[in-house]
Amino acid sequence: MNGRTGSGPPSRRTVLGGAAAATAAAGLAFGAPGVSAAGTATTGPAKGKGGGGGRYEGRTVLVTGATSGIGRAAAVAFAAEGAKVGFCGRRERLGKEVERRIRSAGGEATFIRADVRRPAEVKSFVDRVVDRYDGLDIALNNAGIQKPFTDLHEVTVEDFDDVALTNTRGVFLALKYQIPHMRARGGGVIIVTGSSNQFMTRSGLGSYTSSKGGVTGLVQASAIENGTHGIRVVALAPGMTDTPMLDVHRPDGLTDEEWAATKAEFGRQGIDALKRMATPEEMASAALGLASPDFAFQTGSVVLVDGGQLAGI
Predict the structure, then answer these.
(1) Is residue 92 in some structural domain?
(2) Could you say which of 56, 133, 177, 208 is catalytic?
(3) What's the total number of domains in the chain?
């Protein structure tokens, strides 16, 4: 499989209609850093300061779902800009690898294993980060999952609940336990990783899309309730982002090289403006920008960062 049908180039409908292509079109942005849209390795921000002298010097940053993908890239990038980073995930081995990488570069980070589906673990994670680093300034609520493509009426109750508990209730729990600390501190910034699926959907993505729609409501409500407490709440909605989450829909029998080429073709066919998928590092850069004073009047909104994907739909 190479992203082509017949002897000519694939149509937009053909490319985006396939399972893996639809995954990319969903704007999925969770998974381990791996190959970029061009098939090259992506392991960190394009540049960094190694943990000192950056724009987030001395700030405490909390990231959920940071053992891979955008969360991992953001944890590395915030630390490179001087932040003290507390992050969580379910995969302890990967979490410890990220922690070691940040510290070896001169940054400060602590991995705490936590599952955002479990209230007690979320509360413990937030409280431990606050205690360790004496407060909380910025949170990136990034943890999320996707299931294989299934028409909505055939989605199992268990799968629907798992997506909702992770993508929507997980954000609620994070907000619930982060906001009191930020109010006590006199303000802060909360960013939630959403999806371009907050604006559109495709066949087989009903459970995922509904979970991301719920994120919109949580962001709007918490922004209204906390604006006078100095807290901004914004959703970052990625478009096609090349992470191993796409591998859930990888066709059997493809080599790594063939799969990388197929994903690159998906990006070229599915994004009208930039003709490629984003890297996790590019989404991390967007999160760092939104967390900065440059966006001091930005709250309660969903910021689409999709490389022009929706412009052509």
Answers:
(1) no
(2) 208
(3) 1
